[in-house]
Amino acid sequence: MFLNTLTPKFYVALTGTSSLISGLILIFEWWYFRKYGTSFIEQVSVSHLRPLLGGVDSSSPSNSNTSNGEADSNRQSVSECKVWRNPLNLFRGAEYNRYTWVTGREPLTYYDMNLSAQDHQTFFTCDSDHLRPADAIMQKAWRERNPQARISAAHEALEFQLRINEVSPSFSALVIPSVFLSFPRLLCATAYILLAEEEATTIMEAERLFKQALKAGETCYRRSQQLQHHGTQYEAQHRRDTNVLVYIKRRLAMCSRKLGRTREAVKMMRDLMKEFPLLSMFNIHENLLESLLELQNYADVQAVLAKYDDISLPKSATICYTAALLKARAVSDKFSPEAASRRGLSTAEMNAVEAIHRAVEFNPHVPKYLLEMKSLILPPEHILKRGDSEAIAYAFFHLQHWKRVEGALNLLHCTWEGTFRMIPYPLEKGHLFYPYPICTETADRELLPMFHEVSVYPKKELPFFILFTAGLCSFTAMLALLTHQFPELMGVFAKAFLSTLFAPLNFIMEKVESILPSSLWHQLTRI
C-alpha cells in the first residue's frame, strides 16, 4: 500500500538528492586526495573506526615487534629521502633574486633556504669563532632569516676587521685582547662569501668578491694549517678554514664557467680535486662533467665517469644520464626506429638503450624535461636524489648538451618508456637499483615552489571510495534524469524492483505463518 502511494516526483527527489550528496562527497574526496595523497574516508576508517570495532592497538605490548618493524621502515624512508646540496646551485643575488624581480615569484622555498642556512653554519662556523671577532659576528649572521640583516652583518664584520687591522700594535695590545691579535692583518672570508652570494647582482661582481674572499681564505688556511696539531680547537678551526677555501675556489670556478671561460673553470676544478681529494661532499666532479660537456671533450668526460660511476659510490642523475648520453652519441646520428624494428638492434644500439633504461630507472622524471614535455623552472639549492628536484637541476644545465648531440633526444624519446616494462610492479624491488623510495613526493613538495607541478612516480592509484562515489553519483543522476523524463515507466520499474527486493522477506513471512499456530501469530502481531 505504501509503495502504491508514492508518486514519480518522490523518485525524482530521492535520486536527485542522492546524486547531489554523492557528488559533494566525490568533490571533497578528490580535493583531499590531491592535497594529501590519501582518501579521507579511508583515513578516518583506519584511524578512528578500526579501534572502535575492536581493531588491534599498535601500542599494545603484544605488537612490539610490529611497531619496531614500522619504526625501522620509517627510519629507512627518512634515510632514503635525505636531501643533498645541489652542486650546480645558482647565486641568490645574481640569479635567483633577478628572477624574482622580473616575475614576482619566489623560486626558493623556506624549507630550501633553511637547509642552506644549516649548511652554512656547518661549513663556515666552529667553536673557536670567538677568537676572531669578525667570525663571531658572521656566526650570528648565518642564523639570520632576513636577507638584509645578513648582508648588514657581513658589512659590519668587514668593517670591524678593518678597524682591528688599522690599530697599531702598541695601542691594540691595550684595548684588544691578545687572543684577537693572534691573526693580524686578516680579512673575514665568510663575510665576502655572503656578500658574493646574496648582495652581488651580477656574476662579475660576485667573482670580484670571491677573489677577495680567496685572499683572506688562503691566509687563514695557511695559518690554521700550521696550528692544527696543537689541539682539538685548532683542528676544528683548520677544518672550517678548509671548507671555506674549497667553497670559494669551487664558486670561482663556477663564475668562470658562467662567464664563458670554460677551460679556465675546468683547470680550477681539476686543481681543486687534486688538492682536496677527500672532500667529496661538494660533488665537484659533477661541475667538472658539465664543463667538459660544454667543451665537447667527451674523452675526458668518459675518464671522469670511469672513476665516479662505480658500484661502491653513490649515484646521481648526472652520472647515469651522462653515461647514457655518451653511449647514445655513438649511434644516435644514424638511429631509426623503423630500421631497428626490421633488422633488430646492433650491439652498440643495445648498449645505448640499456644505458638509457638504467638512467630512467634511477630517475624517471628527467626524460620529460629533456624532451620538453614539461616546463623547466630554476633549480633549488637542495635536491632529492631520484626525485623531481634532481631532475630539474640536471635538465636545467644539461639539456643543451643533449641537444648538441645529433639524434640523442630522438633515441631517448623512442626508448625511455620501455624502462617501466622492466621494473616490477608494485615496486617491491628494483631492477638495477634499490626500490624507488615512496617519500620523494613529500620531500619534493617541500623543496620546489608552489607554482610548479611536482612530477610523481609511481602514479598513485585512485582510492576505492573516490571510484565508488563517482559511480554512485553517476548512477543516481541517471536515475533522476530517467525518472523525470519517463515518470510512469520508471515508476513501474521502481515498484517491480522493490517487489523483487522484498520477495525473499515475504517468502520467509509466509513460511513463518504456515508453521506457527494462528493464535500465537495473532498474539505476536498484537505485541
UniProtKB/TrEMBL annotation:
Q: Which GO terms describe its cellular component?
A: membrane
Q: Which InterPro entries match?
A: ST7
Source taxon at top rank: Eukaryota
Segments spanning the bilayer are 12-33, 462-483
User: What is the membrane topology here?
Assistant: Multi-pass membrane protein
Q: Gene that codes for this? A: st7
Polar residues: compositionally biased ranges: 69-78
The UniProt entry, under CDD domains, shows: ST7 (cd11557)
Tell me which species this is from.
Answer: Echeneis naucrates (Live sharksucker)
Similarity comment? Belongs to the ST7 family.
What keywords tag this UniProt record? Membrane, Transmembrane, Transmembrane helix
Where is the sequence biased in composition, kind Low complexity?
58-68
Asked if Transmembrane helix is a keyword of the record, the answer is yes
> Quick one: where's region Disordered?
57-78
The protein depicted here goes by the name: Suppression of tumorigenicity 7
Where does the record say this protein resides? Membrane
Major subcellular location class: membrane
